[in-house]
Every structure is written in C-alpha cells, then in structure tokens.
Design goal:
alpha+beta, seven-stranded antiparallel sheet, five-stranded antiparallel sheet, 7 helices, 27% helix
Length: 270
C-alpha cells in the first residue's frame, strides 16, 4: 500500500536550565510523531514517558495507522505506566500529544491525539492554529470564563493537569481527524515550549525556518533563552506531498481545494 503522504520531520529536546533530568520523550518516525512529558519524580516520569514512546514505536515503518491502532497503543501504554507505579516507582504518569499519518479512502489525513497539556499545532497558509485542547485546571477556568488568556499565562495553577496517562487518571485522550494538505507544518511540543514562548513567536520561527530540524532546534533554543524552567521538547513535521483523492497519488501546493472543515471528529473515547 502506498503512503497517504510523504513527510519530513525534525526534533529536538533539552532538559532546560532548572532541571537535571529530562523527563520528556519523543517519537518522530513515520507514521508517528508524538511527545510525552513525564511526571512523578524519582525517575518515574522519565520511565513513564519512555514507556509510552516504546509502545507507539511498534508501529514505525507502517504507511499509516487507524484509530484502533492508536487506541491499542494507548491501552498498552496505560498498562505499562501503571506497572511502574505498582513497582514502587512513585505515582508515574505522562502527558501525550502528537499526530499520526492516516489514510481515509486513499487520501492523506492527520490523526491528532492529546491527553494532558502537551500541545499539537498546525501552521497552514501562514496561520498557526492550536489543534489540541489542554487538559488543565487553567483551561477549564478559561472555558468557564473565570480567566482570560492573559491571566492564564501567569496563573500559578497553569501546570496542574486534569488528564494523563497513568498518575491515577482515568481521563481519555481527545482525537481529531482532518485532511492534510501539502505544505502543512505540524508542531508537537511539551509545555516547556508553550509556557515560555508565546504563539506569535512560535509562528514567526516556524515561518522563517524552512528546515524542520532547524525549526525544532530554534524553538527549543528560544524556550531556553526565555528561562528554560521546564524540560523542552519539539517535533516539527512537514507534509511534502499528500494523496488527495483515490486514484491520484499526490498533490502539490499549487492545486486549489475547496474549503474543508478542520475537525472531522473530536472528543473523549469512553
């Protein structure tokens, strides 16, 4: 089976300036591009994020995945992280956010997943859009109207998450499925980036740096120079060519397409 799209990717990670241990983990190999931000202390977070990445790594080399594949990997990830807690590693847990290459009737799609406050963005037509929604106390306060975005940026509760893989959380991941377009640039990052660098600056760097590896390194460097108070991990994925419809293998940036909805489905899977 031919791949629904061809992508190039770059990734970079840094422990930051205040932590000796990097509890983030990443996977940036088609068809899976994810970031996990571990938590729990005493190496529990580092092992939790690594365990999740290991489960998803089983699918490296596939041309695409379907939702059932991702749900299976998530189920195995939960079991692996809970086993860490059971073995006295502390209350191990991790966030997980990212994008998977998917095939819908021969067409290239992005399948995005998120649990916790790591994020997935999309840069298209010079516009940066946050696809994922943070599972955090601050995000709930924003949605209830108790905080605005400016207040949220400095709120002391911004690091308290409401869903995770492990850490005693039963919360499910959110999913979004939407058509890919040649020229799309996807960004996956831990909150070590988003808490230090505003979206306007993230967009500027992603727009200026055309190479995904250079862009990933530049974003991490920006977060470090802004304070580097947490581990920082960035994955940048560029859609080089995309299968546009059955029987047509690839499309390029010069082909127009009717406006289509960003989100095909979303929400927790119970």
């Amino acid at each position: 089976m031919s791949a629904p799209m061809i992508v190039t990717a770059g990734a970079w990670t840094h422990a930051g300036l205040r932590r000796s241990l990097n509890e983030d983990a990443l996977l940036a190999s088609a068809p899976i591009f994810v970031v996990a931000d571990g938590m729990g202390g005493h190496e529990a977070g580092e092992r939790a994020s690594a365990a999740v990445v290991a489960e998803f790594s089983r699918y490296i080399g596939r041309s695409s995945l379907v939702l059932d594949d991702v749900l299976e990997a998530l189920s195995r990830s939960r079991d692996a992280v809970e086993a860490l807690s059971d073995s006295a590693m502390g209350r191990a847990g991790t966030t997980l956010s990212g994008v998977i290459l998917a095939d819908v009737d021969g067409m290239g799609y992005w399948l995005t997943l998120n649990i916790g406050d790591s994020r997935t963005y999309r840069l298209a037509d010079d516009e940066l859009e946050q696809i994922s929604v943070d599972h955090s106390v601050v995000q709930e306060l924003i949605e209830s109207g108790e905080l605005d975005s400016e207040q949220a940026a400095s709120d002391t509760r911004r690091n308290i998450i409401t869903r995770a893989v492990g850490a005693g959380s039963a919360g499910e991941a959110d999913f979004w499925l939407f058509p890919a377009e040649a020229g799309d640039r996807m960004l996956v990052c831990s909150d070590g980036l988003s808490s230090e660098v505003p979206d306007t600056r993230i967009r500027e760097i992603l727009t200026v740096e055309s190479d995904p590896q250079t862009a990933a390194a530049a974003l991490v460097a920006e977060a470090v120079s802004a304070g580097g108070r947490d581990n920082i991990t960035v994955v940048v994925v560029d859609a080089v060519s995309v299968a546009s419809r059955p029987g047509v293998q690839m499309r390029d940036d010069n082909i127009d397409e009717n406006t289509r909805p960003r989100e095909a489905f979303a929400g927790g899977i119970d």
